[in-house]
Amino acid sequence: MSDWQSWLVAALLLFVAEMFTPGFWLACVAIGCLAAAAVGLVPLVGLPVQVVTFAVTTVLSFIGVRPFLLRLFQAGGHAVRTNVDALLGKTAIVTERIDPATRTGRVLVDGEDWRGASIDDIAIDSGSRVTVVQVDGAILLVEKEG
Fold first, then answer.
1. How far apart are CA 112 and CA 99, in angstroms?
2. For the chain, how many structural domains are there in total?
3. CB burial class (10 A; 0-12, 13-18, 19+) of residue 26?
4. How far apart are CA 108 and CA 114, in angstroms?
């Protein structure tokens, strides 16, 4: 196995390992391995040049690539809300009257039927438009629009 192939295998293994670890540390090292593999393809370039390329590229990716990836994928950036968090702020239609005394009622959000309760402890009639304010287990706490 030639040097460039070894660098490439190391990069692939590091990228796979990155999927199981947080922080993008291994991805930065994998980028260094890819750069060393590319330099290893050039004829008459020895292992010392590849190692220097690996080290410099790894440090540069820690400085430049890692902060970008952290902003892109973690909170603080434009984090994508998923699961029930994605329901917060959405408009729903009351399909079954919400009664604050019994905490019964149903709402329809994005085509899905949920138990609903009024956050203000007021009755909301069927057909009313409401906004999802909070999620309490399997119950959406809503407030009447308008």
1. 20
2. 2
3. middle
4. 6
Domain extent for 103 = 83-144
Tokens of 42: 């050039």
User: Token pair of 34, please?
Assistant: 């890819």
Model pLDDT for residues 66-120, shown as the tens digit of each residue = 888 888 776 555 556 657 778 888 999 999 999 988 877 999 998 999 999 998 8
| 19-37 mean pLDDT | 93
What is the pTM assigned to this prediction? 0.52
- CA dist., res. 141 & res. 132, Å (int): 6
- Residue 41's alpha-carbon distances to 5, 37, 38, 142, in angstroms, are 9, 7, 5, 61
**Which one-letter amino acid corresponds to residue 95?**
T
The model's confidence at residue 39, banded by pLDDT at 50, 70 and 90, is very high
95 and 66 together in one domain? no
Measured between alpha carbons, how far is 59 from 42 in angstroms, rounded to an integer? 22
Residue 139 located in a structural domain: yes
pLDDT for the residue 103: 76
- Tell me which of 45, 73, 101 is where a domain ends: 73
